[in-house]
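Example 5.3 — Ribonuclease PH
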Amino acid sequence: MPRPDGRSSDALRPVRFRLGFTEYAEGSVWIEAGRTWVLCNVTVEEGVPPWLKGQGRGWLTAEYAMLPRSTHTRTPREAGLQSGRTKEIQRLIGRSLRAALNLEHLGERTLIVDCDVIQADGGTRTAAITGGYVAVVLALRRLIAAGLVPPEVLRTPVAAVSVGIVEGEPRLDLCYAEDSVAEVDFNVVMTGDGRFVEIQGTAEGRPFTAEEFAALMELARKGIAALLEAQARALAEAPELPPWPPEQEGAQ
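Solution (predicted C-alpha cells):
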C-alpha cells in the first residue's frame, strides 16, 4: 500500500535545518522533518548540578514541550507536574546528546537544550535529537572560539529516526498517520561512527521476528546516515555567530 505522502518505504521525509533561528540562545536550530517542526535552543550556564560540583566536568540536560496547537486538537500546557511521556522524552534527548560530547572537556558548565514542538506529525522526539545536536554544536563552537573549551569537547555526531512495520511493511521515518496504526514501532538513536545510543521499541499490534527487527535496524542505519549528512551540510554552511559570552550593552 502507498504511504500517505507517497514516499518509498526506505525514504526519509524532507529534512531542513535553519541555523541561528533565534537571536539570544547560544545555539538555535529550527528543524523540519516533513510536517514535524521543532525549535531547539541551547543555553550555556556556568555551574553544574550539586552532585557534579568539584569534579571538573560538565553536564547536558534537555527539556521538551509541545505547543497547544501543535497537534490536530489542542494539547493543554503542562503547568506544574509533567506527564510521564514528557519526562521520558526529555531523558531520551538528554542521554542521546550527552553521547555526542566529552563532558570532561566542558568544564563545570551546563548545556540546557530546550526542544519545543511547533507542529507534530510523528517523530517529534527523533527530530528534537537530530536538531538538538546541531544546536549544541553551534553553542560549543562559540565556546571553542572564545578559548573556553577545546575542540575535543565534541565527540561524535548523533541523530535519530523512527522505523516501524505498517500493513506488514517495514518503513522508515513514520508520519503520524503511520505511527498511529503501526504494528511495530521503534525510535533509534545512533552516533556518527555507527554505534547505537538507544533503541526504543515495542510490538504495538503483534510480536515481531528477529528477521523483522534486523530489517528495521537496517532501515534505521540508512536513515540516520542520511540525517548525519544533512547535519554536516547544514553546519558547513552555518553563519558566523557573535562571540560568547555576548558583550553587555553599554560596555566600554
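Remark. The domain at 15-75+84-237 is CATH 3.30.230.70 (Ribosomal Protein S5; domain 2).
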